[in-house]
Structure of IclR family transcriptional regulator:
Amino acid sequence: MPPAQGDRPDTKTSKTLHNGIEVLELLARNPRGLTVSEVAEGVGVHRTVAHRLIRTLEEHRLCTRDPSKRVTLGPGLVSLAEAVEVDLRTVAGPVLMELAETQGATAHLVVPEGEAEARALMVVEPRGAHAHIAFRAGRVDPMDQGSAGLALLSAMPPREREREEVTQARSRGYAITHGEVTHAVSGVSAPVVGRQGKPVAAVGVSVLELKDPEAIGAAVAEAARRLAVLLPQA
């Protein structure tokens, strides 16, 4: 479906760059790839223009074509994402450490991985707790399971047949789950919303016993707000 008229760039911005970004966003929503004609239709440009945009993105390794000529996102995006994540880890580190110590629980920073998954970018364990949850960064879980994924979903527009827990998280500012991604472990997470109103991450804690959900929820939500303020302005 071509973009609506209101989504067109204004006359003071680069239409070509705008279209190129739209191509990347379209490919991100279609991980199995698209034909050049499908890209042209999705962005709302002539097939010749779509082909030229794709060739330019290919030169920068931002998209690629498989043997069947279907276009997918390219490996060049990985290095760009890694640079962003380095900055995010640097900014989030002190916030997560304070959250882990004050709550005596393992704190985590989770980022969206495409449209349907969430990946643990950072895990910080409390130094003074007698017992705590341990898991490695890099773990990927379905976005509709676990408090971090539900927190991310709560900062997005409502989806068809979304879980009641997502609706609740949208209302109170944090999500709570029990034993969804790890047996007997409860999670409390809040979304970190970027400058453009989209969730860039979720901050949360994992505990064996959730004694005071509201207090932990308030602490997690405050940590998410602090991190959102610290994010780069770009």
The longest helix spans residues 76-103. The mean pLDDT is 86.
